[in-house]
Fold these 3 entries.
Entry 1:
Amino acid sequence: MADSFRARLRAGDLLVGPMITLSSPEVAELMSELGCDWLFIDAEHTPMGPPEIQQIVRAAGSTPAVIRLASGEPTMIGKTLDTGAAGIIVAQVNSAEQAREIVDAARYAPAGKRGRGLARAHHYGLQMAEYSARANETVAVIVQAEHRDAVKEIRNIVKVEGLDGVLIGPYDLASSLGRTGEVDHPEVRAAIDAVRAACLEAKMPVGILGLTAEGLTPYIDQGFTLIIAGVDVLLLGESFRTLLRGVRRSS
């Protein structure tokens, strides 16, 4: 089996992990001990910045932590990867040009323009040469297709050299189609299928979020391999709500 998250992703391995939204190293550490393949760390919709990201990446240990960013701003990409993250996922990527700029920011020269500095990823400078030599081959770059414009451009996006995967964001995609919350609407389903088909045709790994095993199984059967299974706050909240209801019924 390939060692790096990127290698496993590109090989088509089924990679299952939870979404982490809490700025808690303990939550990341707990999830990493349950046998998941990776952790999806959401720095788009949470207050997390590089200091919190670094603590979570450290707590994840040997479990690859991949960070979702709100944009492809090069400085933020560099700071995020310098924490030792296994890769990035950039939200709302709607064109091949955007995807190229993101790949460029995540790769060291001559493949890109990522800056070099002393940080955790390089063992604070003690392994700068070793990390620099392998980073372009081991750091994963994934973009999110979550807008109708991305669906229109998906066949160009998947051709971008150095891009490692596409993650579909069904809820934002539904909203962009005027179907807010209707992720099972035929129009939304057709858009998801269009992205999936383009990715599979180009042999580009494709992923999606689901909240239950029953909901995710059909996607896996359709060729999705990058799987976000549940969200930390929902897993916590729903579990306790079920326990609370059970206790009250029995009292």
Note: The mean pLDDT is 96.
Entry 2:
Amino acid sequence: MKTQRCIERLNDNTVLIHVTEQTQQAQLCTIAAIADRVQSQLKPHIRNCVPASTSVMIEMNDLTIRYAPFRLSLEKLLEDLSRTLTQPATAIQGAQHRLPVYYHPSVGPDLKTIATAKNIHVDELIQRHYSRSYLVTAVGFTPGFAYMGSVDPSIAMARKHSPRALVPKGSVGIADTQTGIYPRQSPGGWNIIGHCPQTLLKPINQLVPKTERYCSLTVGDTVSFYPLSRSEYLDLLAELQ
């Protein structure tokens, strides 16, 4: 597979950078590097930058720049990246996160449903979920929602046929072979197995320009989970208040 990075104009103010690398890890690291550079070097000229598993979508600020000079800036950025990233999979390492989860039916209403469907005990389901690390392969659907894979095949579970109207912020879910955390309250159809008492989105007005992420998780990051007792969970919840 040949390394490729090409620019496609989707509409008047949206650009898609397609990325193809020899391995998934190299691809995700390259995507993370492109998104980081776009957001740091071209920040005045963009409204949004969304990394995914095979691309980076960029929404231009058409009040500050036209497409032609913006494309030239992107081409230069990609050329510079190619010179500095001869081995992207090792040259860039995504951040590593270790996140707490309280696995309990009171906050994980689908725990028993999945365990019954897979013919395993709830405790075994929980252990299989937190016993491996996950790679963030895309961010989307709602700001800060990180798609992570892959869960143990024995606990993979299709999305719910009827999505919930409201899923609480911090809910940890499984959909097919992926797992994820709802960064804020929203509708959703993932199977909820627990709750993460940690804020994943920072208020924009509290960010230090160019030094902090709005979203804690981004493409190329690695996430592992660890289980909480009820008392540990309540203590962490209290700290968030």
Note: The CA atoms of residues 21 and 217 lie 22 Å apart.
Entry 3:
Amino acid sequence: MTDLPTLQRLLQELRLKGMDSALERVLIQAEQQGLSIQEILYELLLEERRHRQERSLSYRISQAKLPYDWTLESFPFPRQPSLDKSWIMTLSGLSFIQRGDNIVLIGEPGTGKTGLAIGLMRKALVQGYRGRFYKVQDLLDELYASLADRSNSRLLKRLSNFDVLLLDELGYLTLNQEQMNMFFRLMDERYTKGKATMITTNLVYDKWYDILKPKSMVDALLDRLKHRCVTITIKGESLRRPAA
């Protein structure tokens, strides 16, 4: 009769880590409850699937580069009465990703734009979508640097394939024409592929012309962005202030 250590070594060799970690427990359960071979196998396969799902989620979260562990459940909705919580929770169903809709969150600093966007991103990651967080300035710098080593096409392809891209703080920028060209190419490719992009900004759309040039390119950018877009405007005090 094959002993437990032999079975564990074989599972480790096959890299079935979920089954390996659960094997002893499942065998004890089988002995106590009189489980059939089919039931034992089913329990072990469930553990292997759970382990792989957790590992996959951990990888997606690490790749997304989220700077904070914020969630929609922890967002202080009572402190931002201008927000329709039911609408935000509807968005958390993630149908906007399936449709390729964009989300633009507009509000003064500290009003919770980034927190909401990260909360939606985290929901997407849990459901198996691939995403990436960027400060807009960092993205522009990375796009510009890719021109020097001619990796721009590869970078654009990678960024345009994310299910959802979160671009934070559009409004605090210094950019040149090459960066604007690359930014437009990225947004155009994501629009063409029907990929969802979330943008947080303290600027209403008319003010985008103050930081992005030339006007004709900004017109084209906004035309694509707003074609399939949910705009959320937050009017309230900074959440960084102590609660009353």
Note: The chain is about 55% helix and 10% strand.
